[in-house]
Amino acid sequence: MLYSLIKLPIRLALRIFCVNKQIIHPEFLKQKGPLLLVANHPNSFLDAIIIAAHFEEPIHFLARGDAFRKPWHNTFLRLLHMIPIYRISEGRENLYKNEYAFARSAELLKQGHIVLIFIEGICLNTHVLQPFKKGAARIASMVVQEQYPLNVMPVTVTYNSFTAFGKNIRMHLAEPIEAKQLIPYDDDAKNFQYFNDSMYQQLSTMIQVPPSFPTKYRIPLALPALIGFFLHIPLYTVLKQLVDANTRGTVFFDSVLFGVLLILYPLYLITLTLLMFLLDVHSLILWPIILLHPVLAWCAVQYKITRNNN
Fold this sequence. Notes:
Elements: H1 2-17, E1 18-24, E2 35-39, H2 44-54, E3 59-64, H3 71-79, E4 82-85, H4 98-110, E5 114-118, H5 135-145, E6 151-159, E7 167-173, E8 177-178, H6 179-182, H7 188-206, H8 222-247, H9 253-278, H10 283-309
Parallel strand pairs: 1-7, 2-5, 2-6, 3-4, 3-5
Antiparallel strand pairs: 6-7, 6-8
Helix pairs in contact: 1-2, 2-9, 4-5, 5-7, 8-9, 8-10, 9-10
């Protein structure tokens, strides 16, 4: 329920946060399960947000286990279809819990769902692929060994910047591959190596950093962009500084900034509405101001991209 409720607001927010979007093979976004998505991981949980927001079917995805430590975090993240998975850096004593993550993922696939896993098992702000972990291969092997149908789809997400607001993104979807073709041996070690080698060949050819190309919109944005800039710069500057201070030295700046804006911007508009209501601003003035805020924010970001590339 929660997953479905926030999907539309996320899609709308991404239209501002990510100004230009290029999707290679968008027809694959209509794919249904059982489907294992195997993706690169350059930009923390923003990668998962972008992929999940564009697929028509709900997606379940594996996420770093330390995010589930607090009880309310655990409940909230599971409502968003997340499955905890642990790395050695999060404590060897937690690694046994990964058996649940693999089993749960395999079960969801056998039920006909879509599961997303970041095969590198680590996030760095780089488009250079890191050594692959065995998790994706293990999940695929578990499903294939039980004679269930399964397709595997390589996916890459790339960005022209890991810090800029109003970024360009490129999502490349490859044609699904029958999982049994990637698990051809009777030996697990050989299967895992073959699976990872095959995925590396696919993903490495799909990664292409999008250029900072101009906006495709040709309307005169200067005046509405200027208004949007002055309306939003106080809020954006404060939030950006707070997020930067709390994520410095990590890979979370982009993702946290998006999440904070997604949550706080509607609250900001509600507060602004209440304030104008208390000041007895006429409704014919109040509602256009509130409804135009997101549009003007979009104009400000679009104009910045146009100005910087013309």
